[in-house]
Specification:
The protein is mostly helical. It has a domain of 74 residues. Helices cover 60% and strands 7% of the residues. It has 3 helices and 2 strands, in the order E-E-H-H-H. The chain has a two-stranded antiparallel sheet with strand order 1-2.
């Protein structure tokens, strides 16, 4: 039976009388303020993800597709085309995500810059 004069934070009983102690208690979930402040970074996260995808596609192209063969067999040519297609898709997808994040960042900046204050 729980004690009414204690509250639990991460499994530790803490007396209610000490609940006003300065400092931040350890929480197992993020408070709502942190999630709200992370919303402003989503365009930057998209830009970083786009750059990561682009350079991953480039690296995949260098490692697996590489330079085309001089006199390839059909199997070698098919393997090269397969890996080159995967690298191309990764690069273009990374470029699209980067572009979307950049445009979202610009739009957010312009909207916040020229937004009129709310008059009540």
């Amino acid at each position: 039976m729980p004690n009414k004069n204690h509250w639990s934070e991460c499994g530790r009983d803490t007396p209610v009388s000490k609940s006003d102690v300065p400092g931040r208690p350890h929480r197992s979930v993020l408070p709502f303020g942190v999630l709200r402040s992370m919303k402003r970074f989503w365009p930057l996260m998209l830009i970083a993800a786009g750059l990561f995808l682009f350079f991953s596609g480039f690296l995949y192209d260098v490692m697996f597709a590489g330079i085309p063969y001089r006199d390839p067999t059909r199997e070698m040519s098919a393997g090269y085309a397969h890996h080159a297609h995967i690298a191309s898709v990764m690069c273009w997808l990374g470029f699209a995500v980067f572009l979307f994040g950049s445009l979202a960042s610009i739009v957010r900046f312009v909207v916040r810059r020229f937004r009129r204050p709310l008059v009540i």
